[in-house]
Amino acid sequence: PHSAPRQRPARLPPGLSESDFSTAVKDLRQSIGAENVVINDQPLKDGWYLEHPNTHDAFHVVEQEELVCSAVVYPGSTEEVQKVVRWANKHLIPIYPISIGRNVGYGGAAPRVPGGVVLDLGKRMHSILNVDGENASCMVEPGVTYFKLYEEIQNRGLPLWIDCPDLGGGSVLGNAIDRGVGYTPAGDHFANHCGMEIVLPNGELLRTGMGAIPGPDGTDSPVWQSFQNSFGPKIDGVFSQSNFGIVTKMGFWLLHEMPHRSYCFTFAQDEDFPRIVEAIRPLAQKGVLGNIPQLRHVVQELNVTGRRKSTFHDGEGPMTREEIRRAAKELPLGDCSWVFYGTQYGDAQSVERQLGVVKAAFSDIEGTKFWLPEDVPQDHYLHSRVQVNSGVPILRELDWLNWLPNAGHLFFSPITPTRGKDAQKIHDMIVAGHKKYGFDVFPTLCIAGREMHYIANVIFDRADADQKRRAVALLRELVDDCAKEGFGEYRTHLLFQDQVARTYGWGDQALMRFNETIKDALDPNGILAPGRCGIWPKRFRGRGWEL
Ligand code: ADP
């Protein structure tokens, strides 16, 4: 069903006639090569993670043909990116840069404005420009995936780690500018970047951090990957989750490999949730937990083993707690409620001592059990955490997608304080919302000392229009419910970016007015990713584009 003939005519960029567009395409083909400009008029294929489309959102939660581009363009160098940007200004065509475009659950490769031109940077710009073993850093182009960077470091025999998210096929650079997270002590990807090179919406080139100092004889500054600041305002942040520039190079700090020990704790009662959070907070704040561990509900033990929901549950509606309990009993960790997946770092003695502190913190919670990798079978998820928490990219979490036929998923990702009563409040809203709209609740919390990224994974059947409608309604309602209590999302799917941006409206939308001021100054023609993260350029603003 995923490569049926197109139902609608191919999309054009907004405001362009067919002949305007074909003139523009001819113009661009001349400038960067005909083979690097591909019109999106063929049947759409959702593919799968490793063969993902760059024409639309593979996990379409609206009609498959709704969020589509008019064409995909493949620049091969920074100069060609500049050429495309100047071309877009000349023809007033919105362009939408992606690095790899596997941004699953947040919109994939789809442009926010249908008919925009997708700039697929990763296809031809995928060099690892530098790995510096002494400085423990690297510099990459947009198309470098976690797998590729990991392999390069292995091939060179360097004793260094990267930090990867749950799925290793994404772009190191793209994930960082979308402010994604991983799970080693360097899990905050944007915080561990060091220097960028950016093509601005007018085609000019900018380097941030120490990259602003030219090195001798046309070389790069030797401190570009050593110090994150330059002189004056620190501007890197405005290029994350924004549409102010196209990042063509980015530096990252790497970790030194170290001994590590992964483990999990299981808890007996769902109601222990706030107590677990209270026990975790001091551990995380004091640095006893040195990385970003995860707290997951036991239902995740079912879906991460690639099982079908229909194995446990007949018909419509979410699984009942009793069904989850019964199914969990058959699995290695048994009947429990929450599972805490952690890793301690350091030599064996130190890890032993750290584990003593962690065990003591959970000892008051009745029914708590402690598990090491050797206590569970080889295919248990704990072994996947051993890898991810030590910087080894894997694809294990794709097993979710067996839960339903034609499964797609959406993330609802609010930031909750690492405080029992607040976390419980957000969890209750999420549970109530899922119940109302008929979805299973799949909570994963990525934990830091003062906040947790609560990632609720809404799995839906892409062939079922009603499920898609309900998934959208659920997201919209949860965004509003959380905002009423003063909570907000760290990241969201394209469709909800306007709504989420509006919730950050303190001071009569002071933050958005500031962003719009920057947008209009940098991108007067409004060509770069209009609408991304709710930021619309003047040309589009208030003309019915906001959702
Ligand atoms: P990944 O495949 O790593 O998940 P994507 O390439 O899909 O990441 O990037 C996620 C989002 O970040 C994109 O939708 C796009 O809006 C933005 N983005 C990605 N790469 C760049 C870039 N090089 N410059 C500017 N924005 C980018």
Describe the protein in words.
There is one protein chain. The protein is α+β, with helices and mostly antiparallel strands. The chain folds into four domains: 103 residues, Uridine Diphospho-n-acetylenolpyruvylglucosamine Reductase, domain 2; 126 residues, 2-Layer Sandwich (Uridine Diphospho-n-acetylenolpyruvylglucosamine Reductase, domain 3); 232 residues, 3-Layer(aba) Sandwich (Vanillyl-alcohol Oxidase, Chain A, domain 3); 55 residues, Vanillyl-alcohol Oxidase, Chain A, domain 4, CATH 1.10.45.10. Helix content is 29%, strand content 17%. It contains 13 helices and 19 strands. The strands form four sheets. Strands 12, 13, 14, 15, 16, 17, 18 and 19 form an eight-stranded antiparallel β-sheet that branches. A five-stranded antiparallel β-sheet has the order 5-6-10-8-9. A four-stranded mixed β-sheet has the order 1-2-4-3, with helices on one face. Strand 5 and strand 6 form a beta hairpin. The protein is globular and about 70 Å long. The site of adenosine-5'-diphosphate (ADP) has 20 residues, from strand 3, helix 4 and strand 10.
